[in-house]
Amino acid sequence: MKSETSTPTGEFTLRLSATRRGARLARLLAVQQLQDWGVTGPAAEAAELVVAELANNAALHGRVPGRDFELRMERGEEHVHIALSDARGERRPQPRPQPRVDPDEGGYGLLLVAALATAWGVKGRCVGKTVWATVPVAVDQNMVRSQPPGP
Fold first, then answer.
1. Whole-angstrom distance between the N-terminal and C-terminal Cα of the chain?
2. Tens of pLDDT, residues 112-134
3. CA 10 → CA 13, 43, 79, 123, distances in Å?
């Protein structure tokens, strides 16, 4: 882990290696930060699933050897804004993800993000891209199902 910042203004930034271990650490440390902010229950579960999916995608599809990915979370009064930045700008997810024909191939993660977030998208950077999502702090109990979180 290269740096971690937690401030009282509701910002959290973390840089991790673009590996499965890095994705897992991003999820675990995000859960701790959500608890520190007082985000619990279904809202925390929804944010955890979004972080897990975006971190897994950054490690799997956005990996450039020797480059990290960055997790940034901002706590607002009614939402948590989650952003994952990686070094692969040419590999951008589609705004309206389509499931694959064969469910064993995967491809459903961004559908989960779209279901749990009030909004999500992709923006370019000088190097790479940022995939972001906004998760409401008050989440409908039926939105979050008992699914195991990411990696």
1. 17
2. 899 999 999 998 878 889 999 99
3. 10, 16, 11, 22
